Amino acid sequence: xxxxxxxxxxxxxxxxxxxxxxxxxVKDIEAVKxxxxxxxxxxxxxxxxxxHALAKFCGTKYAACxxxxxxxxxxxxxxxxxxxxxxxxxxxxxxxxTANAALYCGAKPxxxxxxxxxxxxxxxxxxxxxxLKTKIVTGVDYAGQPANYRSLxxxxxNNEPKFNIFADAAHSLGAKQNNKSSGxxxxxxxxxxxxxxxxTSGEGGxxxxxxxxxxxxxxxxxxxxxxxxxxxxxxxxxxxxNIGEIGFNYRLSDIHAALGLSQLSxxxxxxxxxxxxxxxxxxxxxxxxxxxxxxxxEENDHSYHLYVIKLDLDKxxxxxxxxxxxxxxxxxxxxxxYVPLYRHSxxxxxxxxxxxxxxxxxxxxxxxxxxxWPGMTDDDVNSVIIALNKVVEFYVR
Length: 397
Ligand SMILES: Cc1ncc(COP(=O)(O)O)c(C=O)c1O
Description:
- The protein is of the alpha/beta class.
- The chain has 13 helices and 13 strands.
- It has two domains: 5-22 and 267-395, Aspartate Aminotransferase, domain 1 (Alpha-Beta Complex); 26-264, 3-Layer(aba) Sandwich (Aspartate Aminotransferase, domain 2), CATH 3.40.640.10.
- The protein has a seven-stranded mixed β-sheet, with helices on both faces.
- It is globular and about 75 Å long.
- It starts with 25 loop residues before the first helix and ends with a helix.
- Pyridoxal-5'-phosphate (PLP) binds at residues 68-70, 94-95, 97-98, 140, 168, 170-171, 192, 194, 205.
């Protein structure tokens, strides 16, 4: 058995392998350059082009770009004109923005447990938490597989009053459920184009929807609440506009949009690379004691924004903390997605405790994210598998 790097042995890799990374091509750089030399750096044609391409890719009538995934969530929630005290149900294991966007609107985020096998929002937990104040249930497409939207719509159909089903699809651009694309599975879906995501625009985000009312609201909200953007006013040769409601500057610049559009044209190739890496991990894990895969629902085609494993702690002499540190010492940039939201002091006023979320508490102690991004070489992938085997072999009982 070889000595772990954490105890002074040689690490499997000489340099740290990040868990996620952008892949930027020469074509991407040219696309950005073209905008930099054009008349419009913002509110120009590149944003519209990106929006059309996104709507087409997702199979929706509309796409509206904004400056981040968080702005997308905020704009999407705000499009329903939430009142103080309205409730937005979100899974307890997600990035904070899914819940914070509800707080921005004066609404209350209601955390519910996740499914132990898939780490997607637990449908029974949603059902138990629906109240007269529930305005939105947000499915989070954790790691890149869509939440169980069919079950969420069944719940909604059987409920009075009705609520909206939204998707935090930050992880799932390119994923599918029953052959329908992520972005078209809920009343509206929000995306993030942060560098580690399926495509990047540097920072950026978008909302896709078939609902014209939601779309129109978002277009106004992202631009200070102004009812006509700069180019519409130019076309009509007028300086006049009206602000009927408060908005933000959540616009995406044309520089960002050009990068996003160029990246979108390569998404299928990059999805293929992510899926190939995931298959290699799947095969390795099938032969490893004490390591389990996160279950993928049969109806889902996964986009593998993240590859998450679950440790069977009964099989090891140590916990996830030592496992994490040991993998890092081997120069494998493992991560943990995510600290359950109820553990953050920000939300303590809502009175949630770990006992309210038995599944989240259980899986949180066991999950570990392995590196996955399209530019990883075969050697990179093998180094993760070798390090995982080394650490497992060292700590297994
Ligand atoms: C599930 C989820 N929702 C929302 C966001 C927010 O996206 P952004 O970082 O673009 O604001 C992220 C980003 O990490 C995320 O993972």
